[in-house]
Amino acid sequence: MKVNGTPTRTIWLAEDGRTVEIIDQTRLPHRYETTRLASLDDACRAIKDMLVRGAPLIGATAAHGLALAMREDASDAGLATAYERLFATRPTAINLRWALDDLRTRLAPLPADQRAAAALARAEAICDEDVALNAAIGEHGLAVFRALWEHKGTPDRFNVLTHCNAGWLATVDWGTALAPIYKAHDAGIPVHVWVDETRPRNQGASLTAWELNQHGVPHTVIVDNAGGHFMQHGMVDVCIVGTDRTTATGDVCNKIGTYLKALAAKDNGVPFYVALPSPTIDWTVRDGVAEIPIEDRGPGEVQRLWGRLDSGETAWITVTPEGSPAANPAFDVTPARLVTGLVTERGVCDASAAGLAGLFPEHAAAAE
């Protein structure tokens, strides 16, 4: 995608050919800043502190983190330590484990002096593959949007509701749920996006809105609790979200509040789609509510907000009374029964074991 007209990815190899650079997403939308990751410590901090976020980008950053670690210590012990430290950064997004398992499997048989180069090459390949996967998701999602738009008689505004950020900032490029939006906009479909603010970190208001602005897509930021109201009044044509982990049976784990949007969509007959690349599918899990670990983040994210003051300065402000505790589960699980369809790089399927097996028979067979 583009930042101020310049094609940009969320993570890229620095000019030295050894370190990587990322967009510091904690500074958006008021500041566009990049930072360099030069060590395993840097990569772990970037993931844990959410300088990078979104399941696919977390996986790509973990892959580069392991490559950086191999420059520091490419021994078997160094590989094991790097794997465990990166794995512990965030528990919910399955792409993290997928990328780390992929690299460990490839590196373990190699002599230590070959591991750093092999790890870097594979990390770069994972980034390129992510871009291709998400571009394909965009094409399949575009077909869904076009069919819905034409079924409604090609109105002059096609309203899409999103939750959290599943755009190119959550991936290496294109995004998952936002890829069809970009493709539809570019194809001339008059798409307009209702952007959920997505408390407590406001990824919708801060990141999705920033992305859409950069691409010129019409949108309106709304509070999280307004989605059901707009659905009741016929002002939402389709909902589409991303996911940090999808079970083999079609349950989807996404940013907290997604479940409530799916319930409202079901009650109002609004199609509810989930966009995901195949590395986000956890073929070892069948019951999302019972089996997916939900990350609990610190209460400060609920109690405080970061933003720009009227003076132009950026600052943290406190919004809760002193002494009031806060709970902060980062994700919830939407059962497959509430999902209209899953949009993947191989096409669209029902949110079910049979639906996923039809698109990914090689994985489904192994999961049984």
TrEMBL record:
Keyword terms, alphabetized: Amino-acid biosynthesis, Isomerase, Methionine biosynthesis
SUPFAM superfamilies: NagB/RpiA/CoA transferase-like
Binding site for substrate: 53-55, 90, 203, 254-255
Catalytic site: 244
Enzyme Commission number(s): 5.3.1.23
Residues under site feature: Transition state stabilizer: 164
GO BP term, example: L-methionine salvage from methylthioadenosine
One Pfam match: IF-2B
Pathway in which the depicted protein is active: Amino-acid biosynthesis; L-methionine biosynthesis via salvage pathway; L-methionine from S-methyl-5-thio-alpha-D-ribose 1-phosphate: step 1/6
Catalytic activity as recorded in UniProt: 5-deoxy-alpha-D-ribose 1-phosphate = 5-deoxy-D-ribulose 1-phosphate; 5-(methylsulfanyl)-alpha-D-ribose 1-phosphate = 5-(methylsulfanyl)-D-ribulose 1-phosphate
Record-level Gene Ontology MF annotations: S-methyl-5-thioribose-1-phosphate isomerase activity
EC class of the enzyme, as a word: isomerase
PANTHER family: METHYLTHIORIBOSE-1-PHOSPHATE ISOMERASE (PTHR43475:SF1)
Role noted for this protein: Catalyzes the interconversion of methylthioribose-1-phosphate (MTR-1-P) into methylthioribulose-1-phosphate (MTRu-1-P). Also catalyzes the interconversion of 5-deoxyribose 1-phosphate and 5-deoxyribulose 1-phosphate. Part of a bifunctional DHAP-shunt salvage pathway for SAM by-products.
NCBIfam families per the UniProt record, alphabetical: eIF-2B_rel, PRK05720.1, salvage_mtnA
Family statement drawn from the similarity comment of this UniProt entry: Belongs to the EIF-2B alpha/beta/delta subunits family. MtnA subfamily.
Protein name: Methylthioribose-1-phosphate isomerase
Natural source organism: Roseospira marina
Gene: mtnA
